[in-house]
Amino acid sequence: MIKVKQKPKLKNPILVEGLPGVGNIGRVAVGYMIAELEAKEFAQLYSKHFFPFVMLHDDYEIRLLKNHFYYWKAKKKGQRDIIFLTGDCQSLSPYGHYEIAEKILDFVKGLGVKEVITIGGLATGELEEEPHTMGSVTSKKILKKYKKYKIDFNVGEKVGYIVGAAGLLLGIGKEKGMEGICLLGETSGFPIVTDPKSAEKVLDELTKMLGIKLDMSRLEKRVKEMEKFIKKVEDLQKKALTQISKEEKAPVKGKEQLRYIG
Amino acid sequence: MIKVKQKPKLKNPILVEGLPGVGNIGRVAVGYMIAELEAKEFAQLYSKHFFPFVMLHDDYEIRLLKNHFYYWKAKKKGQRDIIFLTGDCQSLSPYGHYEIAEKILDFVKGLGVKEVITIGGLATGELEEEPHTMGSVTSKKILKKYKKYKIDFNVGEKVGYIVGAAGLLLGIGKEKGMEGICLLGETSGFPIVTDPKSAEKVLDELTKMLGIKLDMSRLEKRVKEMEKFIKKVEDLQKKALTQISKEEKAPVKGKEQLRYIG
Amino acid sequence: MIKVKQKPKLKNPILVEGLPGVGNIGRVAVGYMIAELEAKEFAQLYSKHFFPFVMLHDDYEIRLLKNHFYYWKAKKKGQRDIIFLTGDCQSLSPYGHYEIAEKILDFVKGLGVKEVITIGGLATGELEEEPHTMGSVTSKKILKKYKKYKIDFNVGEKVGYIVGAAGLLLGIGKEKGMEGICLLGETSGFPIVTDPKSAEKVLDELTKMLGIKLDMSRLEKRVKEMEKFIKKVEDLQKKALTQISKEEKAPVKGKEQLRYIG
Amino acid sequence: MIKVKQKPKLKNPILVEGLPGVGNIGRVAVGYMIAELEAKEFAQLYSKHFFPFVMLHDDYEIRLLKNHFYYWKAKKKGQRDIIFLTGDCQSLSPYGHYEIAEKILDFVKGLGVKEVITIGGLATGELEEEPHTMGSVTSKKILKKYKKYKIDFNVGEKVGYIVGAAGLLLGIGKEKGMEGICLLGETSGFPIVTDPKSAEKVLDELTKMLGIKLDMSRLEKRVKEMEKFIKKVEDLQKKALTQISKEEKAPVKGKEQLRYIG
């Protein structure tokens, strides 16, 4: 379900996605851009494929889990209109990933999007002194376009696949006539930790690609603010998954065992 | 998906369901009636909620898992037209049980069915010397109608619920204006075994309720034939569920863990 | 599937939800109000996302798992028309929670509902001598409206999220233009126990908020009646989930492992 | 979702399916035929029932998981037009198998297909010196047609069922008026290994059945090429399933435990 507050008029906009994931690289990078550029929220998405709970903000306010769309208009030459996508979470179920990606792409296509940048993390299993920004693209054309940036395009050697929105928005996007690139920040990938260092590296290239100069001095502060919230959602999701399993002593193995016994 | 070969003209028909379940009481009882009465198959149902495999009959012939509808026309006074429902399996998923029951009921309602008899097994955990036939109904009216038979209506004390088709066809049926009764044959309920003794007990009452006399002398032989086939389907379902889990050494716990990592 | 017996004409009604959950606070509180106020049932909901079994009432009568809608008309000034929602269970699957909440909200919106009160339990892990009633709201406006009551609005500190109907009816409700409050009674949260003490505390505030005086002297008796039934459903759900897993010795881990092996 | 590049005009075409599975017999046999015959790709299928990730080809290029349709036109008498179906994967969920099979069959029926050949592997649990090619059919008519080939039709004795596309395309196909045969190459079935020896045996009979002569000399080389890719997808699927389960220390047992706790 996408709820549009106000449909912006945009000129050849590019979609930049950063949802929670490994190291929360995308979430942090896009969150920082939205804040610094003062991008405007214009639409929200919620889905039956998200966790079935609401969160409490400021201790008392109920909020549905959501993804948010923001737009920002080009200020000068070399820049272009941008739609940012970020949010609380991704799909809980495998096929929900496909359904939500389809919905997002159909929506932004209607706003004129023909190019997509997605941002994710690449778990290396090691603490990276100098995290690289890896890249993968929908076609050689895009590879050429972006090869002048400090992006390592040998992702395939390291990981071979991209799960969830960061991957499917490009994979399904291509089916809908959109091209794009996925930027993956190297990160340790330990039990889900926000990695601002890797996010900054990704932001360095992303802002250059978009012709935008960002003051990075507030990143640390902003990450701390965001991290608190991101961690909260992660914790709640884990808690939600485990709470019942502790309460029930019975060897529950799953609903699929609830077959006919009548 | 229900595929109708030939739509029979029936007068106030009653639906008698016997699908695989605890002790396979329903499957055996209805299977025997179909064979002895030479009821005619007129429709088949298959569903995406069944196990995703086909079976091999006579070693080489491929058959989709199915439920089958048969009809039998009343031969004399005191009898009524009957639609029998039996088959290979029930739903694999919980919500599939609801979807299939809705489909079945809408179909038989279109054929004039206003009353439903379902047959199941009640696992007692003990070997029963004299298995009782338990009963539960959709209303007091039906209780009165059938209380003259040797049916023990204190099911609630023993089990409290009826899972799958035997329960939902009556529960949802009532929502659609149908009344009915569920006959449950007591059976040990050990690792799914066909219990012809309990099935025969249920048949004794069922045939009386329907005004039909059946020669029970062939039951043993028929059960042996059916049992071979029923056991095969059960084994295949178990095999299908376990095969992969043995092959994979990885601690796979379920698709729901496949959340975003990109 | 919502089945309407009789569509009541209500004046600016408020929805008060109390379905089974932690401590069954909501179920008990709303159940008691319905009984004491002699509210009238006017609609029922059943869903393919519920457990696929029927229950046996009074030992012999088959009943589908359901949620029930009741209405009560204001008797004097300071009161308002109320729609109560209670029932046997909530969704078995995560996305079912969203689907059912959407269905409920669309239905009551059609009856004029603009405000929603949901009631749940907050598991503290400790036996509470003096259980607090916690509160969370859809907006500051509602916070102001209800801050004069003995409701602790620092829920976020203690739990951070509300799972299932109590949360989603408010979260999704807000998307549909409804405001509301969730009252959470503190309770130990041990293996699912009905907590009448906490429910009474919630009822104290709830009745004040609704301008209703209730004789609480029958609560204990009513809770005992309800508890027997609530416990039965809980036990059946657990039993349904575990029964098969005991029967099958094979290391069944879930249907998701049933991938292609042909 | 089936995306047609170019709808070929075919004369009484036969569908030959070879998707990944036990021993990857079908995948290898059909992949080799496509390469040697230079069959033309004309349509692609992707599905929300596939794993929710994209793969990286050539280290940098993003590709959605897909199934592919190719056609080849008869060159001389005794041959017929062929539609080949192969691809990266099959459904992740049980009911996805049914949905995808239905979609494929409706699509090829529209292209005139009345006969289907599916190819799979039969896990024997032993290293086969001389792997047999087993066969099962939709009817006696087809059995007669193909009994002159070296196909062992006593499959039922050995396995009893065929899971996934190889089975359902024939089982559901029959419901849609198509006949067909499933060729199963005997293979050890150890933790999913590509078995070119068994695939070659199947190809021997398959090419005879289709009146085609293939130069088998390149099979070894081609299999090595394909194997690298097939293994990659398998590894990614396993990795995707296990990665999160390692990261989370909490005893997550499945989404079905995420029931109401609010």
Beta strand % of chain A: 15-25%
* Structural class by secondary-structure content of chain A: alpha/beta
Largest sheet of chain A: 8 strands, mixed
| Strand numbers in spatial order across the main sheet of chain A | 1-3-6-7-2-8-11-9
What's this, in brief?
The structure is a homotetramer of 262-residue chains. With 262 residues, the first copy, chain A, is an alpha/beta fold. Chain A is built from 7 helices and 11 strands.
Describe this structure in words.
The first copy, chain A, is of the alpha/beta class. Chain A has seven helices and eleven strands. In chain A, strands 1-3-6-7-2-8-11-9 form an eight-stranded mixed β-sheet, sandwiched between helices. In chain A, helix 1 crosses helix 6 and helix 2 crosses helix 5 (165-175). The longest helix of chain A has 29 residues, at 219-247. The N and C termini of chain A lie far apart (38 Å). Residues 243-262 of chain A have low confidence and may be disordered. Chains A and C meet through strand 4, strand 5 and helix 7 of A and helix 2, strand 9, helix 4, strand 10 and helix 5 of C.
Observed structural traits:
homotetramer; 262 residues; alpha/beta; 8-stranded mixed beta sheet; 11 strands; disordered C terminus
Describe the secondary structure blueprint for this structure.
Four copies of one chain form a homotetramer.
Chain A: E1 2-4, E2 14-17, H1 25-37, E3 40-45, E4 53-57, E5 61-64, E6 67-72, E7 82-87, H2 94-109, E8 115-123, E9 133-137, H3 140-146, H4 155-158, E10 161-163, H5 165-175, E11 179-187, H6 196-209, H7 219-247
Parallel strand pairs in A: 2-7, 2-8, 8-11
Antiparallel strand pairs in A: 1-3, 3-6, 4-5, 6-7, 9-11
